[in-house]
Amino acid sequence: MDDAGQIQTPRAVAAKSLRTPTTVSPQLQRSISTMAAQAAAGGGGLPLGWRPGSADEWTALIAQVDAQALALVPALAAMFPHRVELMQVAGVTVRQIVPASLDPAKAGRVLLNFHGGGYVLNGGEASTGEAVLGAHYSRMTVVSVDYRMPPEHPFPAAVDDAVAVWRALAAERPAGAIGVFGTSAGGGLTLALALKLKELGLELPGALATGTPWTDLTGASDSYQVNAGVDGVFSSFDGMAGGMAALYAGDAGVTHPLVSPIYGDFAGFPPTIFTTGTRDLLLSDTVRAYRAMRAAGVTARLEVHEAMSHAEYIYAFDSPESAVVFRDIAAFFDEHLKG
Amino acid sequence: MDDAGQIQTPRAVAAKSLRTPTTVSPQLQRSISTMAAQAAAGGGGLPLGWRPGSADEWTALIAQVDAQALALVPALAAMFPHRVELMQVAGVTVRQIVPASLDPAKAGRVLLNFHGGGYVLNGGEASTGEAVLGAHYSRMTVVSVDYRMPPEHPFPAAVDDAVAVWRALAAERPAGAIGVFGTSAGGGLTLALALKLKELGLELPGALATGTPWTDLTGASDSYQVNAGVDGVFSSFDGMAGGMAALYAGDAGVTHPLVSPIYGDFAGFPPTIFTTGTRDLLLSDTVRAYRAMRAAGVTARLEVHEAMSHAEYIYAFDSPESAVVFRDIAAFFDEHLKG
């Protein structure tokens, strides 16, 4: 027992060997098996046991990981035709994704996307994977924000860039006609943007879609324990993820509500859809934010997918499960965006 | 690779020691820690490593486990005042729970509850725990069905009893004024009842609430692997749970859609709310049924709770998380029941 008389017995869980489940599509089975094979060979995913010790080491690592993300781009473009327009909006680099599936009836609406990567990875050309999928399935234009990141630009640079692009988009159309979405750090930044807009007294987006959002950079969530080693994409908070959290938060600290939105107040938020999977290391980060939003009286939906790891719906983009994820998000935007 | 060329590498997960999470209420922390302490002492939960080898051994085990469930009854009654009316409906033993909180404005509505316990346990006086909680929070009368169970009465006795009580209730009020709910096997039976009513061409309930439902008795769900040893209430499918599945299914087999509703067709189902937790051994049974229902075009909600084990919202009935579970269910019935 601790000082408060609380029983604090840890629960011992034996080592296990997880079969590839038969309860998902062949495409998702292949993704799960491939990641398991890479892990068994000592590779795959992020180099989690280690974290860079200097800005130069971070920069070298970032280049290496971003190259992996870039390798997906041709396959994505073949399956989801689109054009990319590189531009500056309010001084921020963005890539506007115009899908071949564009629906002219939705021309009054636009989506804003923030890429994932722990606020450190997937900048530049590597930033558009989820934006392409979101544009294709929603049949809307997506503005993908290449926000500034550490080591050069820790918090609040990313939030400042998000607000700057938001102001520009909201100057041209009703705020309610804009949907914001993102995965992982991009899901956290989606929530942080809305918190910041509340703080500034600005109008909020019409709806949010936050996928396996990084809402608690302290690492307190229970699924960091339960799904450690289970998640094929993001297998542990220890090591590099904790390093990215510290690098991003900087002097503000990881409990700042714009760094870890779970410590913010979601009252008055627009309708929000959450997506996660049963193997997701951030299952609890997602569930906790969903519950906090429901407790605050916000219209919210929670979508969980069988055996899916963190953000796997982006990487396994050929799976029917990925299509369900993005169709649910598209339908949610269709239902809640105005204009 | 297997014959189809599929990579089938299992994923190795190291042994771990799970801390009691700080991300849940003190009451739920106490529940989690207490179960961990019991497990560390070699007790607690079901005797999972072993399964009875004869009908007499089953009967002895059932008496032992039911006595544990009965021990909760006085504390539940003190916290959630109600009266119990024991009666026969269509030849089936039921206990009608009338809560002190009864709302006369909802007198035209009634809820039907099926207790959990793997279709084997928690019969008789031990069957009313969830019914009491449901009655209190919904402020409606709950008819708790003491359906027949193995070893004497395998499938389809439970489904037959459910249909018999349903017919009696639906003869006295519109079908849409009746809500059906249940947890674990009771959640599975809730879905099986609706499948059977479809088959019979009868009207369906106004809404369903299925908590951590046992939807796949084959044990295929991924969370049987991932949350094995993690769930404090129901820590493994192997051993007794698999034994209960075989004992219940009997000659029909575990893939019969009225035994394992995941193999049924949910098209045309009434609005359904699903409840589970991130440590739930049946997280995947729940998520898969929710996804199948969404794919069939049914109005459905999924509620997941941080660090909660299988059906823990019944046992940790003093926790705020348990109140949220039953308030969400009550609100769902308020929204969707007619009359």
Characterization of this structure:
- Two copies of one chain form a homodimer.
- By secondary structure, chain A is α/β, with parallel strands linked by helices.
- Chain A has a single domain (60-336), classed as 3-Layer(aba) Sandwich (Rossmann fold).
- Helices cover 38% and strands 16% of the residues of chain A.
- Chain A has helices at 26-40, 55-70, 73-79, 129-138, 157-172, 185-200, 223-226, 240-249, 283-295, 312-315, 320-336, and strands spanning 11-13, 16-18, 82-89, 92-99, 110-114, 142-145, 178-183, 207-211, 272-277, 300-305.
- In chain A, strands 3-4-6-5-7-8-9-10 form an eight-stranded mixed β-sheet, with helices on both faces.
- In chain A, helix 5 (157-172) packs across helix 6 (185-200).
- The longest helix of chain A has 17 residues, at 320-336.
- The radius of gyration of chain A is 19 Å and the shape is globular.
- Chain A starts with 10 loop residues before the first strand and ends with a helix.
- At the A-B interface, strand 1, strand 2, helix 1, helix 7 and helix 9 of A face strand 1, strand 2, helix 1, helix 7 and helix 9 of B.
- Strand 1 (11-13) of chain A pairs antiparallel with strand 2 of chain B.
